[in-house]
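In the design runs reported in the main text, the only information available to the sequence generator was the tokenized backbone. The following block is the verbatim input for one such run; it is reproduced so that readers can re-run the procedure and compare outputs position by position.
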């Protein structure tokens, strides 16, 4: 015997009864897709990094600076894969200014981002 009463799917108008609260199989993916779209609307930087202008600036910067700056300082030659904003955009850094851009490998970019998140005020 079930321990709780069945509950209807949370999608408006759906008659399916479920043993656990939530969405039925037919509406679960729709609910997740709508949530993701709404969430993306809050992150203004996501659209910026997908823009054609940023992609062109990034590609040109990597052509001019093909090696990771921090690896080069350590005496290693590693290809740069990420164009990082020295001063993050959220902190008022210029989006397209070459003086605010840095060519880094994934390892050094992730380490820098972790430090920024850890010491965020």
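Verbatim output:
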């Amino acid at each position: 015997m079930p321990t709780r009463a069945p509950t209807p799917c949370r999608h408006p108008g759906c008659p399916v009864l479920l043993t656990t609260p939530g969405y039925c199989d037919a509406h679960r993916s729709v609910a997740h897709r709508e949530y993701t779209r709404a969430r993306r609307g809050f992150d203004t930087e996501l659209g910026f990094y997908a823009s054609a202008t940023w992609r062109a600036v990034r590609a040109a910067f990597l052509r001019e600076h093909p090696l990771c700056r921090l690896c080069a300082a350590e005496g290693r030659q590693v290809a740069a894969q990420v164009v990082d904003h020295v001063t993050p955009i959220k902190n008022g850094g210029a989006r397209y200014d070459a003086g605010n851009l840095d060519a880094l490998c994934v390892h050094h970019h992730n380490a820098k981002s972790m430090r920024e998140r850890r010491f965020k005020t």
